[in-house]
Amino acid sequence: MRARIRNIKEDDAERYLNLCLRLDRETEFMLLAPGERRTTPEEQRQKLASLLASEVSMIFVAEAEGKLVGYLGAFGSDLKRNGHSVYLVVGILQAYSGQGIGTALFGELESWARKRGLHRLELTVMAHNEAAIALYKKAGFEIEGVKRDSIRLDDRYVDELYMSKLLPA
């Protein structure tokens, strides 16, 4: 099955929120635990409107069978000193992993980033998330360091890896 990759639209607010809520329940690898996300559909629509008005941030969504099944968010800054960089957040429903969606999302991101003259793509990933680390390495990301005991999962602490990809200037 092929997913269509595109920029998010304001009209996607409720479907995007539902995707995020499902990811919160489905995997421990997202930052928010089940029940922590309290955004309303209207608040989500406002956040998307603000994001879409920015030249330095975008959310790319993967759509299959009429529903959103994954996303890659790129969040940048208008500041001079770090305006060359975007922080990434990725989520793909488990039923759709391993189908090339992540690779396609990163391809779309990189094209968007190059058009904007961005230089640094960065993210953090839980150190035990082997599938995500493999995807990021496949996309050209390298491990820069370890953020020790960065996340608390139930009764244990988990390290995160800092990863980045530098685009040619």
UniProtKB/TrEMBL annotation:
Keyword Transferase: yes
Top-rank EC class of the record's enzyme: transferase
Membrane-spanning segments: none
Keyword Transferase: yes
Keyword tags: Transferase
Taxonomic superkingdom: Bacteria
EC number in record: 2.-.-.-
SUPFAM superfamilies referenced in this protein's UniProt entry, alphabetically: Acyl-CoA N-acyltransferases (Nat) (SSF55729)
Sequence ranges assigned to domain N-acetyltransferase in this UniProt record: 19-168
Example GO molecular function: transferase activity
Database matches in PANTHER family: GNAT-FAMILY ACETYLTRANSFERASE, SPERMIDINE N(1)-ACETYLTRANSFERASE
Protein name: GNAT family protein
Taxonomic source organism: Paenibacillus haidiansis
Organism placement in taxonomy: Bacteria, Bacillati, Bacillota, Bacilli, Bacillales
